[in-house]
Amino acid sequence: MAMIGKAMLVPLCPIRQYLRRGYSAGPAFQYILVERKGQHHNVGLIRLNRPKALNALCDGLMTELNQALDTFEEDPNIGAIVITGSEKAFAAGADIKEMQNRTFQECYRGNFLSHWNHVSFVKKPVIAAVNGYALGGGCELAMMCDIIYAGEKAQFGQPEILLGTIPGAGGTQRLTRAVGKSLAMEMVLSGDRISAQEAQQAGLVSKVHPVDSVVDQAIICGEKISRNSKLIVSIAKEAVSGAFELSLAEGNRLEKRLFHSTFATDDRKEGMTAFVEKRKANFTDK
């Protein structure tokens, strides 16, 4: 949560028909742009689009983001999703003007921010392509994704402490799991930022790329993932995600059950048969 901008909520338009035609979703949304990318149009790209507010996350933007994620989740041709912002800011935080006058009672009764973590429940892989500022809610949104690619000038931080509050969309939890207690404590308690290079060294970021190529590299990664069985990819994602929630013993039991379950799929049979026959696998499970 942290930064700037003034939210203005408007009625949201349906986008499913628009996306089926393969267009960007310019007129369908106020706060995001959506399109299909990749040689086979099998990667969904969601671009946060509040340039004057450095992509500050307002409730309307998060609602639109969730709608786009659900649409790509239901699309059998989409194998991975990329979320990005602009070169200046992935998202500079949550919309402080939208939150400024909220009371404890409003936050508690309305379970404020409860729908902001929807991205973490998407079954398909989600890649964050981060340029510029990923602060507060922007850092939290990136951490909800499965893979983070960063531009060379990206900055990550949880500066909520400077506003008299704490992260409220998973920042204290996901950051600690990603970078360890000491660095997470330093960032959360001081509000200090870390660079893309420091984030990679700490394990928060998978790869660092030049600013002008980070989105393209994320799409390439999404295409590579999309060539695999979409069903097995989702199962693999569930297994890895379990490592953050379960003990080692319980995680291993989950992995074994999921591994066994792959033997009930056509794609497991096709993958192994193709390997034995020294040919390319033709995966069909969606």
From TrEMBL:
It catalyses: (3S)-hydroxydecanoyl-CoA = (2E)-decenoyl-CoA + H2O; a (3E)-enoyl-CoA = a 4-saturated (2E)-enoyl-CoA; (3S)-3-hydroxybutanoyl-CoA = (2E)-butenoyl-CoA + H2O; 2-methylpropenoyl-CoA + H2O = (S)-3-hydroxyisobutanoyl-CoA. This is Enoyl-CoA hydratase, mitochondrial. One of its GO terms (cellular component) is mitochondrial matrix. It is found in: Mitochondrion matrix. GO terms for biological process: fatty acid beta-oxidation. One of its GO terms (molecular function) is enoyl-CoA hydratase activity. The keyword S-adenosyl-L-methionine does not apply. Keywords: Acetylation, Fatty acid metabolism, Isomerase, Lipid metabolism, Lyase, Mitochondrion, Transit peptide. Pathway: Lipid metabolism; fatty acid beta-oxidation. The keyword Transcription regulation does not apply. Pfam families: ECH_1. Belongs to the enoyl-CoA hydratase/isomerase family. Homohexamer; dimer of trimers. Its EC number is 4.2.1.17, 5.3.3.8. It comes from the Eukaryota. It comes from Xenopus laevis. Its main location: mitochondrion.
